[in-house]
């Protein structure tokens, strides 16, 4: 049953992330310094942040705890990229990276690790890395590898993984997302639903929440400019250049409509992080703050 339109979205914990400040890499001269990000995300009225690319924020737990604490912030999750579809040969390298991020994530008191599949074309150069479709064997590597990752992350760090469908990766469209969910253990593997990426790839976030609600463990809030997206699809533009063209936009200017997504998520009856992420790498340093402030006001107007 749909919730009343005026329902307070009290099960959603709203935050933001370095991505909303144009941060995609641990170190890049086009990105704002980490201290400015922390200052401005706090100034915008958010309580929660993600770690972003490992190495962008300080990696010493004591220092990072001090820096976020004095700004009234807390950490909701860390993020890792994985290429588990390539099979057991990549496990040791994957685990070494995951362990670094997971250790810092746990030290910051967070409970989630956002896992993004590797890109099949480079997000900075748009160079084709591998085919966009996986073979049956690669799908098996991906799903069993993700379950192994979930077990090991839980056992060693006490964290749950949430897998992030993402443009230009092998988990992107509704078909791929459903195939992935149907092939993985619900007790181990949950989903980070990014509303912008899912719309970018043709998916319906409300439908996904209503169909696979028990698998939704985390949200990224994002919108897509439908006019720019139409051009991106028509021209086959890779994700990185599409972002530079402004394919991701601030709410409520794009799709999906945010209120029904938030209401559907509230209707699950569980506490969920809902982290604002507006891809806009690269961007002028003065651009993110006013967008973040407007977005936070908009989400409050929705009851979140």
Automatic annotation (TrEMBL):
Xref: SUPFAM superfamilies: Xylose isomerase-like
Gene3D superfamilies: Divalent-metal-dependent TIM barrel enzymes
Span of domain Xylose isomerase-like TIM barrel: 38-301
InterPro entries for the chain: IolE/XylAMocC-like (IPR050312), Xyl_isomerase-like_sf (IPR036237), Xyl_isomerase-like_TIM-brl (IPR013022)
Domain of life: Bacteria
Annotated protein name in UniProt: 2-keto-myo-inositol dehydratase
Organism: Streptomyces armeniacus
